[in-house]
Amino acid sequence: MDSNTPSYRDFIPDYELLLETLAREKLSFVRINTLRATLEDVRATLPESCSLSPTSLECFYRFEGEDPGKTLAHYLGYYYVQELSAGAVVPVLGPREGELVLDLCAAPGGKTTQISQEMRNTGTLVANDKPHKRLKALHANVYRMGCLNTIVTRWDGTRFPLDWYPEGFDRVLVDAPCTGESNHKTLSPSVRASVAISQLQYGLLARAVRLTRPGGVIVYSTCTFSPIENEGVVSRILEHYPVALERVRVPLPSHPGVEEWSSWKYNPEVKKCARLYNHETGSGGMFIARLRRLEE
Amino acid sequence: MTREEEDPKSVLAEYYSRGFGVRKSFFDGLEAIQKKSGIWVSSPVLLPPMFESVGMPALRRFPGGYKPTTFFLVFLGDEVRNRRVELSEKELFEILSGREIERDTGERGFVALCFEGRVVGCGFSTGTRLRSMIPKARAGELLEALSRG
Q: How far apart are CA A97 and CA A115, in angstroms?
């Protein structure tokens, strides 16, 4: 841990248990791709050594067996390997059939393909990411999962053109690059690293607000615990842009956003956000905020 | 009318209907976009001025015409009624490893490779011999899946 960084012990319940959980192998979960298959289709193609059991998230199943990414069902696009915590984000965004939706930081495509599935391959889904090698994975996943309503664009998300869809998007997802603390085997928070990346996160969320039509919905998510990258970014947006936070409800154990941490104090509205922790979800950790774009 | 001037959706529907027995009505409600590399298929979407891809590639340009893509053949699945070539696990291993196998298909051309009744990709038949046209990365994924039984 960075010696100047205060601990997360103050706001993460059962902190020691979280540390133990991070050190262990994560459980595997898959999302059945209803654009391509049913649960029975998947079960019919799985090796006998693998099985699926339901979870509290629709279409998500616990995968018991090795390497869920190396099966015929996976090859055929019948499912996507995805953490439960990550799977909780798209239902908060709530995409509907026929809408215009933007996934601003889309690679490698887990949430993109989930949005397409929720939209039942209708409307327009723009899956954007900046040029990097993960864009190749985004393409491959969009094709494999049969997302015919998806357009892939390659753009720095903080500069995504405002005039391409002048009426604005109905919904925008910002699954922002982050320090990814919930994916690490050990927790080594760094204020310096979080402050540095929070500039980019703020830029992405600010752009997302400008790209959303009045009345539209923006969801901001990260897979890190640092309040600097979560409540801090959202508080700054609330201060400068016409948006209002809405309460996040997920079918997994969660906690409200943190109103203060060490010497930092955040907009009290951030308690409407949701924090998910590995040791409680049995999967990954996640921060989720849902904002409504207001009239200027 | 030259190929360049043909309606890409007509080209797409004709290709898969004549070659693979896909119902032409399957393409109702879908759109086809002509790109330099081939023809892409999507649902009706609002296209931006610049984009990397839309929907998925359905036909790739190939000397003398087009070739079907593995992604689209897999997507079509049971819609593919003709030119299906069912392979045993051993045969699939062979051709995914880059080797040709003997198989009398009766005609030269592209085929849909099938395993346990499911379309898994594109192949090419000389009439008596068969080889895989599945892209290397996808072939690797399929080999890994087969390896675990």
A: 10
Distance CA(A238)–CA(A230), nearest Å, equals 12
- Containing H/E element for A235? helix A231-240
Compare all CA atoms of chain A with the CA of B55 and give the residue at the minimum distance. A148
Neighbours of B127 (CB within 10 A): 12
Residues of chain A positioned with their CB less than 8 A from the CB of B79 = none
Q: Which residues of A are catalytic?
A: 223
Q: A161 phi and psi, to 5 degrees?
A: -55, 135
Q: Is B98 left (phi over 0), alpha (psi -120 to 50) or beta?
A: left
ipTM of model: 0.95
Non-local (6+) Cβ contacts of B6 within 8 A are none
A140 chain-B contacts, CB cut-off 8 A:
137
Residue B28 and residue A100: Cα distance in Å, rounded?
22
Q: List, in sequence order, every beta strand (DSSP E) within chain B.
A: 31-35, 38-42, 53-54, 56-62, 65-68, 84-87, 101-102, 109-115, 118-125, 129-132
Provide the sign of the torsion angle of the four alpha carbons A197, A201, A206, A208, taken in this order.
positive
| Cβ A174 vs Cβ A11: under 8 Å | no
Q: What is the pTM of this model?
A: 0.96
Whether A148 sits inside 8 A of B43 (CB atoms) is yes
Element housing A42 (H / E): helix A39-45
- Enter the tokens of residue A159: 């500069």
Residue with tokens 């007509």: B10
Tens of pLDDT, residue by residue over A84-112, are: 999 999 999 999 999 999 999 999 999 99
Q: Tokens standing for A211?
A: 């790209």
Cβ–Cβ contacts within 10 Å for residue A161, how many?
13
Give the closest-approach CA distance of A55 to chain B in angstroms: 25
pLDDT digits (tens, 9 = 90+) for A115-145: 999 999 999 999 999 988 889 999 999 999 9
To which H or E segment does residue A45 belong?
A: helix A39-45
Identify which of B144, B129, B145, B138 has the alpha carbon closest to the alpha carbon of residue B70.
B138
Alpha-carbon gap, residue A221 to A83, rounded angstroms: 14
Set of chain B residues whose Cβ sits within 8 Å of the Cβ of A137: none
- The verdict on B46 touching A (C-beta cutoff 8 Å) is yes
DSSP letter string over B70-95?
HHHHHHHGGG--SSEEEE-HHHHHHH
The answer to whether residues A167 and B60 touch, using CB atoms and an 8 Å cutoff, is no
